[in-house]
Amino acid sequence: GSLVRTFTPFYFLVEPMDVLSVRGASVIMNCSAYCETSPKIEWKKDGTLLNLVSDDRRQLLPDGSLLINSVVHSKHNKPDEGYYQCVATVESLGTVVSRTAKLTVAGK
C-alpha cells in the first residue's frame, strides 16, 4: 500500500497590484485563488494578519479581494497605507502567499 499523492492545482488567479488612493475613497485589493476545495483567504498588512471580523471599514469580498471603505489618512494616522499580501490556505495542501502590493495614499 504505497500512498500516491496526486498534484492538486492550487494557485493565484489574481494577485493584488499597487494602488494609489486618496483619503475617503474606496479601494479594492484584488485577490483570487484557485483550488478544487475553496481556499480560505486572509489578508496581511505589513506582515500582520488583518482581523476583518471586527473591522467596519475593511471587508473580504466573496472572490477573496479586500475592500477598504473610505480610506483613512491624516498626518498622524495612516492605518490603511502600507504593504498588503493575500494569503490563501487549503487545509490538506498548505498556504500560498501573493506578491506584496503597496497601498499609497496621496496627500492633498
From TrEMBL:
Any single Pfam family the record assigns to this protein: Ig_3
Q: Which Gene3D superfamilies match?
A: Immunoglobulins
The Ig-like domain, residue ranges:
9-104
List this protein's GO terms for biological process: cell-cell adhesion
Could you tell me the keywords of this UniProt record? Disulfide bond, Immunoglobulin domain, Repeat
Q: Which domain of life is it from?
A: Eukaryota
Q: Which PANTHER family match?
A: NEOGENIN, PROTEIN SIDEKICK
Would you identify the family this protein belongs to, as annotated?
A: Belongs to the immunoglobulin superfamily. DCC family.
Tell me what this protein is called. NEO1 protein
